[in-house]
# Entry
Amino acid sequence: MLQNRVDPFGRIIKTSARGLFMGNRGVIHNERKEITHTFKHKAWIICLLAFKGRKRTVMTPDRWTELFFLDEATAFAAGHRPCFECRKEDAKRFKACWIQGNPSYHFSMTTSIKEIDEVIHRERIDREKKKVTHQRMPSDLVEGTFVAIDDEPYLFTEGRLHHWTPSGYDNAIAVPEGSMLTALTPTSIVNAFRAGYTPQIKRL
# Structure
């Protein structure tokens, strides 16, 4: 079993469960198919599982490391964004919503995606390669956002919090009232959700 599945905290884990999306962070494995780095570049992307009939051998030496996600919401929580090659229309839509949702950066559609990647990178991982989180009031949760409760990831959708597992979502709980929640999805990505980008979620 390979270590190539990503959880909402951005950790790369081992599991036999399958995912709905693939992505990468560069070449982060060795010739023994072992993960050796957290990332190699700041363009953390979300890709389709199949594109133009291309075939790949997972973790081929010196080729980018294939990572897999339960769904798009999970990938966003980890700090990834849509690929501009295999998901061009989704990527353009995400960029437009990101720009609209984050006006303080004064970006436009002519802004390089690399500049947006720089912002997202600061929001997802710190210099010690630890997950960056932020605090949100329950009333400020946006559809598709992940939060952590007792170190467990929960997806906010349909007005409730759904517990994440590698295979899917199990028990749902009511959103706690009156206290701040620890959000896992990077701030600017949450703002993109609020501006109209709805992440794809595995059927509950």
The helical segments are 72-78, 88-101, 113-124, 187-194. The radius of gyration is 16 Å.
